[in-house]
Amino acid sequence: MPNPLDMKETKAHCNTCGGERNHKVLCSEESSWTDTDNSMSGNDSYEMLKCCGCSSIKLRHVEWCSEYYDEQGNTIPRTLYYPPAAFRPHPRWFVDLMLEVSFKDGNLHDLLSEIYVALRNDQRALAAMGVRALLENVMVEKVGDKGSFSANLKAFETEGYVSRIQRERLDTIFEAGHAAMHRLYKPSKADLITLVDIAESVVESIYIHHSKVERLKKGIPPRVPKAKG
Description:
The protein has two domains: 4-82, no CATH class; 94-218, Four Helix Bundle (Hemerythrin (Met), subunit A) (Up-down Bundle), CATH 1.20.120. 18% of the residues are buried. A hairpin with a 4-residue loop joins strand 2 and strand 3. The mean pLDDT is 84. It is an alpha+beta fold. Strands 1-2-3-4-5 form a five-stranded antiparallel beta sheet, with no helix packed on it. Helix 3 (124-143) crosses helix 5 (164-182) and helix 3 (124-143) packs parallel to helix 6. It has helices at residues 94-100, 107-120, 124-143, 149-158, 164-182, 189-219, and strands spanning 9-13, 20-35, 40-51, 57-65, 78-82. It contains six helices and five strands; from the N terminus they run E-E-E-E-E-H-H-H-H-H-H.
């Protein structure tokens, strides 16, 4: 076993700590390949890493291929982590959601969990579709199925679950999900964060905030009528 003091250090993503952190390189291997028939070549670098902060272990795979290009036409490597790197953690209330929703709409928690899996694996189109499906389920559960997205969204606003401005934002989210399904739309990472931010806000407001406010209401002592005279 190598001496930890002699181990090389590198920056790498840590899901537990969140973001880039110093890691010890426990071991590493490299390999290369050439495809002469198609004039392609590449190499793979594997590193077993240990976070210097939380001591979690992960495998980093840096893959380079002569056919991988960025928008400027430069060849670039692709970095993969196992377990996958989470660029967005679960919200603090994620576990609470499982406790707050009823059994019949418990799939909301599962669907939100699958959206985070898509985010971790950079499956942006699938995540956008998942956000659309999540919000559609929330609306139908609260106001019933009115026969179309626009009718459901209108009823959602009419019954006070969202404001007019929020409804307009949700309309944009539904359109993004529709485009991902039918028009090969793949949102940028920044746009996807916006989609998930708004979806999380709606879910938290309807399920988490509602329960907390109800508990708060029960704990507030009633007003004492002023004595006359």
